[in-house]
Fold these 3 entries.
Entry 1:
Amino acid sequence: MPPPTLDSILEERRSQPHQLIEVLQDVQEHYGYIAEESMRTISNELGVPLMEVYKVASFYKAFALKPRGKNVITICTGTACHVRGAKLILNQAVGQLGVKPSEVSDDGLFTIEHVNCLGACALGPVVTDNGNYHNHMSPGKLRKLIKSIYKTDAEEISHD
Amino acid sequence: MTKINTVKDLKALRKRLLKERKKIRATLVLCGGTGCQASRCQDVTDAVKNELAKQGLKRSVCVRTTGCHGFCEQGPLMVIEPGNIFYCHILPDDAHEIVTKTILDGEVVERLLYTDPVSGKLIQTESEIPFYRAQDRYLLAQNRQVDPCSIEDYIAIGGYSAFTKALFEIPPESVVREIKDSGLRGRGGGGFPTGRKWAECQKAPGDEKYVICNADEGDPGAYMDRCLLEGNPHLVLEGMMIGAWAIGAQQGYVYVRNEYPLAVKHARMAVDQARKIGLLSDKILGSSFSFDIDIARGGGSFVCGESTALMASLEGKVGEPRPKDVHTVVDGLWHKPTTLNNVETWANVPSIILNGSSWFASKGSKGSKGTKILALTGHIKNTGLVEVAMDTTINTVVFDIGGGGSNGNSIKAVQTGGPSGGCLPADKFDLPVDFDVLAKAGSMVGSGGMVVMDQETCMVDVAKYFLTFLQDESCGKCVPCRMGIDRMLEIITDITEGNGTSWQIGLLEELGSTVSQTALCGLGKTAANPVLSTLRYFRDEYEAHIHAKKCPAGVCQALVTYKVDAEKCTCCGICKRGCPHGAIVGKKKQVHAINLDLCQKCGICKSECDFEAIQVK
């Protein structure tokens, strides 16, 4: 299914400044980031100054202002995961992919993110790949997971 | 879904549902909370459903996918009714045996039962398991009874009868008095008396008022609100409806973290169902009361858990708190009187209205009534969600319910209350989970996070962790929080890197108390708690970092070196393959070594080695 257009996201929300965060959430969800062009349109359609749209988009962690990699690996660094070695997991991801958190790997395939809590604290350390949960992670398990994503990706490309 | 127009209709619907359900021979209750989903419970559910269809049992055996049961560590888990048989760590391949043996032949599949780690005995029913037995589950127990996507399930177990009782039998003033008398206090962290909040909002001038449910559970290490909203959204909505009736609000909002996609989905679904059936509408069930609820997604900002910041966020603005010289119960959302409560607080309301304030007040201690859900995590055997009466001691929670330290390690501390709370040492475990007692001890109940730590945790690192978190999350509006946290983090970083000096401890204490006294909102006011509490109870660890330049737990990277123990090394090569920095050298059948120039001290080799051959000193 193609992502909804900005026009359809804005439907029934036009001229309602308080809908700003909801609109940004939908844009983030479907496009992966908030482009400057989208911010200009949102500003016009909701009746919110562009500066305010940028202020909100840059304040909240949920919004990325730059495109992210094709696959997003999210590492939970909440307290429960921290005491069970979330740092190791983060080190593994950073070391293996050679990319800092929030940046895109050179091949455009990966972005690593760390979040404050994914809310599955009993099963830490927790990692999600594109929204799929993985519990009791270890550096070794993450290494395999990243390899399997590379493999799936290569297969997809050869099928194309 | 047929619309209901009167209380009579609602009662008739409940009667019909109960009659229909009598025909069901057995129910397989499968936990579908986020924890069990991470353990692939969906595959198990599909396999069970397929198996039932294959054996022609689709109509007589019901499969109910519910919210979190609490014992996440054992997932995917299933309870079979009748009989209350508890199966854990189920795989899709087990479906056939469960259906043929347990459902058809009434036999128990022993290999799926829970084994008590202490006695080594197999336990057949949920209520016999020590993890559950020592709890006082009231809110969490309801999760098991309903499919969160079904308003019928909720109505069948008596749902919305508290709301209709309040709406038609109890005037708003009496509802507020009942909540006041119950002694219910805010479950989100502050512990403010809920009844007092409601009374002030009710008295506040103005016709336009709001109720808000704070489901922006940003505390790392806490997930009870997610489980309630995910597992029993109608209970939360019913609490909000009663609150709205009491204070005279026409509109409510659930502000939920977007990092909880399942909670967002279930809350939206519940609102939609309540609208369709006529429980959220104009002139509800023929009364004079009109009310509606909308769901708003948070933007992933911890400070938005603070009431004024949350309201700014709901208005579509940056989530910055404002001074509360005029309280939000008078001047809240869009400058209108607003009552904001946490998910668990709202969830407690219906039962107080149904069972009476004295029922609620019969549990707990003098100043803290009722039960509290705790998220028990960290270095402990049984992790999961736990609900206990508020006078239960930490000892009971950690040892009787939690089963003690994992891997046989001894427990050093428990961190309660998230970034606003503190760390309590093992000799304080006789303290009860009570708002006032824990605050006096330098920590807090907070939203109920309870992270257990053993000797492998460095308490200075824990303080650094929370300061890093808070520095990141501070909105930057007020100077004490913005600058104070920065400076404290600088000092702690110095200490963990071996550059600390003894006078810095005094400076940390002074800074901490200044930030507590002068910051604008709750985030800043409590930001120093993790530092102050670790300084109070674990000062020796700070001193070891400063004077001996040692990290006793072997955590702080700058103070440790990694080395291969030649005697233990089996030359398996797993560390070499695992090291992302190429810092391990060694050929086949040759003891490996670490190149200290390349070593980043990330600790991956140690976690990979099965023979404890990597030493940290």
Note: The longest strand of chain B covers residues 371-378.
Entry 2:
Amino acid sequence: MMRCAVIVFPGSNCDSDLYKAANSVEGMEAEYLWYTSESLEGYDAVLLPGGFSYGDALRAGALASQAPVLKALRRAADSGVYILGICNGFQILTECGLLPGALHRNSGLRFICDTVNLEVVNTDICFTSGYSRGAKQIRLPIAHGEGNYTCDTDTLRKLEDNAQIVFRYSGNNPNGSLAGIAGISNSKGNVLGMMPHPERAMAEWMGSSDGRILFESLMMRT
Amino acid sequence: MLKGIVTVSLKQDVLDPQGQAVLHSLQSLGFNEAKNVRIGKSIEVWLEENDSNKAESRLGEMCESLLVNSVIEDYSFEIVEE
């Protein structure tokens, strides 16, 4: 059984989607963990949900990146625990420095709620191995106002050279994100941050089941 | 009591879509001399401290650790008597 913690911050609002998505995958067991927890001992994966932690005060993800559980999260990342940050979870991962770059205001200024086409650029990490078998073009929902990824040119070069760009928007770039980046990993590949919501694409009746492959890949850990 | 006033701005090479939207509105109001707009923020921090050197170094730490995201933002600050 793969044990997952879904971290709940004040203002998280995709925590129950993520909890249900993970628990719907055979062999995966998720439980909620409050942001004040100081230990992540015993978890194989840590899932950071979307939402508006701390009401996005100061910057999206800035205050959550100082929450007590973040110390344990840094230790977990170092020791190879799988960490997935979705939407606000991605913003928290960049704010705390586990992933490079920053997410700022969408270029069109609007909050975007849509389903978009994505290219799975790297299918070699534990989160995306399942996509190597099928089409690398997938569809996932997005819902964000600050998903415009940016970083300096050196960082972008490193991301490209180390195959850390995991998802790119395909065709239309909805938010002005640099190089169409929708998701990146750390250099080891055990930390993934992404703006699209795989937990909202777990079955055909949701509009797409392409998100399920991500959770199943993680379960297989290949 | 001292007060720190931190001015945070987006780095020059980071696009500012909010500033661009405001620029277009200014121009449509007839302010054609407006050629660029960048929007930042101002953060005031009241400090229980009378030594302005100490206040300065602590405020710098606050900027680096939380108030400013150095990936996309620059900052400057001043310390004033309250």
Note: The longest strand of chain B covers residues 2-10.
Entry 3:
Amino acid sequence: MSERKTWQELELGVELPAATSLGYKTGGWRVLRPVWNASECIHCMICVNYCPDMAIPVTKSEEGVAGKGGRLFKGVVRLETNLDYCKGCGICAHECPTKCLSMIREEEAEQASCKL
Amino acid sequence: MGVRKAITGAEAAAEAMRQINPDVVVAYPITPQTPIVEQFAKYVADGIVDTEMVPVESEHSAMSATVGAEAAGARAMSATSSQGLALMWEIVAATPGLRLPIVMPLVNRTISAPLNIHCDHSDVMGVTTVGWIQIFSENAQEVYENLLLAIRVAEDTRVQLPAMVNQDGFITSHAVEPVEIFDDAAVRTFVGVRPLDRGLLDLQHVRTIGAMVLPDYLLEVKRAQEEAMMHVFEVYAEAGKELSAITGHQYPFFETYRTEDADAVIVVLNSAAGTAKVAVDAMRALGKKVGLLKPILFRPFPYAEVRDALKDVPVVGVLDRSMDFGAYAPVYTEIRNVLFELDRRPTTQSYIYGLGGRDIMATEIESVFEELLSGKLDPEHQRYIGLRG
Amino acid sequence: MPTLQEIALKTDGADARIVSGHRMCSGCGIGPLIKTVLAASDKPVIVLNATGCLEVTTSVYPFTAWNTPWMHLTFENAAAVAAGVESAYRSLKRRGKIDSEVNILAVGGDGGTYDIGFQALSGALERKHKFMYLVYDNEGYMNTGNQRSGATPFGASTTTVPAGKVSNGKPQWRKNLVEIVAAHRIPYVGQAAVHNTLDLYKKAQKGFNADGPAVLAVLQPCTTNWSFDPALTMQYSKLAVETNFWPLYEIENGVVHVNTKPSNRKPIEEFLKGQTRFRHLFKPGNEHVIVEMQKMIDDEWARLLKLEESGIQF
């Protein structure tokens, strides 16, 4: 926790610069964690566009990434969910047309990562 | 040297706005403010100004859109009275916290009920706690000059707070007086141009304005706002000096009239101060040592300076054109606060006058002086000028 | 034609106009709704936000989720604030103080739009300011815990009109905001739903590009106060469309066009079930309320098709 500003240090009219909420991690709210099976993904972007927390990053891939059926997906592809912000709502898993996403309990995920 | 024009107080406000030529003016008509808006609309229609004028559907939207324009980076103005101020109160109260230097003429009119369109100060006295700079004007000349001054004070980087310039409804707003209008170019140099650097339209600096502030920061925000208000005194004096170079007039925080050696002084705002000067002269002609103190800068209130001006006066009568039911009237309260620090305090008396546009005559003020000099006073109970029964 | 890929690219990374770290409820549809709408502007967007869920969750000092100029003033005046910003924009542009192009977006919930902000909205539309007004409609005052609004549907239980022994929830049908704003003869009005990303994006594009004011009304199922599993937000949105409860249509220069016509409209129960606010309707003895609701939905739908068919302009 950073030091709080004094009244002399405050911005005029408490104006804020852009996008400071990136410093506020909402991942701690999560009870369920999305697990993405990239080999079943068709990079349809449904989960990305639906994600309420803007927590599924995308990139432009010219060489392509392997997805469902070993197919190469070029262009805009999704990456791993950003767990710093994902609140675990499960919309991505519910709406995924290939069921390449599933929700597991956060403590299970943590235990699994401990074992690793 | 300016040009003398026979105009009303409302037209004087519009003249100031013509010279300021704001980027945006947003207003909704209300008696007795209407002639300001009408006159300014005519300037727009004739291409005398190139302001974007927005005639909205209510005062609430008027102040909301004015705030929107100011936050976007424009110099925006509005104008209102009474019920209009009451309807926009929510946004009026929000403006200082956003540190938006909006300047607005307020034509003082009583607040309903009962419905009455005439002058008193119950409108402005309902907003003196929310953080606007409050400037009062005795006549049309002062309305004009105070508006020019207000722009500079409000927009100064040390201040960045909104300002209201008050004038009495009908008495000042609708009465024709000779008003000296100064050179357009000189005035425009004086008011300058509002920089864009705090605006939403400054796309190089993407900003969030009006974030929600929780208990961890609200106190600090308000403390900073108070500091800005305290800077008004120095900025007002500096800007006043610059304006003097154009007008030849002085811009004190308050005016004293024949108070040196006075045995009794009356404190009164706005147009009644003019009447009081006539009464003072009449009394002085009879050898009675009386004087007047007319507050101009009411927020922030110059406590120390007023105290210094009143410290040797035996009796001070305060005339309020509004009431604070169950409490001392607003101007009386300030004067009592002023005097508290003195070891030897003057006796005070509170008077209520002029509600809902009731005329106050010089002879009535003379009677007040007589009463103050008689010593038959009751500082804890207000008296009413011209009350029947 | 936009693709989901293009939209996804615009809502992520440096181009995103709203970013992570906001405090909307888990599964809240406002996130996808607002990021899709913002992505549809090809110019910088200035956002004027009414008090409500979106505002309080994105601007808790010192954290702001906005990566675009944004302002909140109060509850009932987003349209008036937008009018002021738009007037400033035109003035400063004319005076040569700025040269960039921008779009202006006012956004509020249904409370800030149908109810307390209605006058400011009507005034701004009548004056023909060039801006888009976006309402995310969660059918009540959801930010403060499910109070009734003018957008709350017939039969819904709210904390201010609860279902009880002698009450079946809200006795009135909702206000038809789309038709009311269309009556202002504005160039574009769209009704969209959060699950249909492409339709929402296209409508937002049309709104931003309209030659005058535009209004976009988007249904936003509220996981918290309609109380359903947060994973189901898009499903409820979809059901609202498939039951004709929330038709997707637009009124472009006065001409009505219905975008989606479900071939087999689902019974309204499909939408109602699982939502706490309609739970009482499934109690024995309350069947007539659902029957009445179904009739109203079918009548409204038939009327909408007639409007489209007639070609009569708003």
Note: Chain A has a mean pLDDT of 95.
